[in-house]
Structure prediction request, 226 residues.
Amino acid sequence: MTEDTTELTPDAWTRVDRYLTDALVGDQPALEAAITAQSAAGLPAIEVAPLNGKFLHLLARIAGARRVLEIGTLGGYSTIWLARALPQDGRVVTIEAEADNAAIARSSLERAGVAERVEVRIGRAAEILPTLAGEEAFDFVFIDADKESNTLYLDWAARLGRPGTVVVVDNIGRGGAVADPGAVRSDVVGTQRCLEMLRDDPRFDATALQTLDRKGWDGIALAVVC
Ligand code: DHB
Ligand code: MG
Prediction:
């Protein structure tokens, strides 16, 4: 027997993450260049893992999304995955609070050949989101910014979406901290409020998945606007 089961250690799940990424994501020069540019500029390596980026991409395709809203651009890694899911006339509106990050993202989006499909809006999402209210509804919303504001972002996802809009919230596991009833860390409390809103707000139906990959132990929430 060579197929021994493996103890769950960081080494083991990183190896599996690498295996699955090699098997199903493969070489992605433009995406890898976006990571290199982000790292060279000193941005934190908190973009989604490759398998999760592709998961977002596939969800957007399955949803037939034409208009995508992303809250939290960072260096544009997930933005590229999402833009690639869209038809030629599709659009990603992505919001980034830091102008320096947005500049890195724009150049990576250009290198990836998707810049004409992406609008990078610089500023606090709380201020930019209300300006999008007159536009056509978004089909897909990815929330990946400051966790303290997740309930605000969910509210805007419902307002700017339509019944059937897919909503994904990143980082709902927080290394297991989310299950701590006495949590005081603001990001954890923000995540807990977000999950309670997904449970209680009739505008959503939702579930969540834990993830274990090169970014460690975390998770995503998946919701549909009702
Ligand atoms: C953090 C934020 C993220 O969006 C993420 O994917 C990982 C970590 C953070 O703020 O620490
Ligand atoms: Mg994230």
About this structure: The mean pLDDT is 97. The radius of gyration is 17 Å. Residues 46, 144, 170-171 surround magnesium ion (ligand 2) (CB under 6 Å).
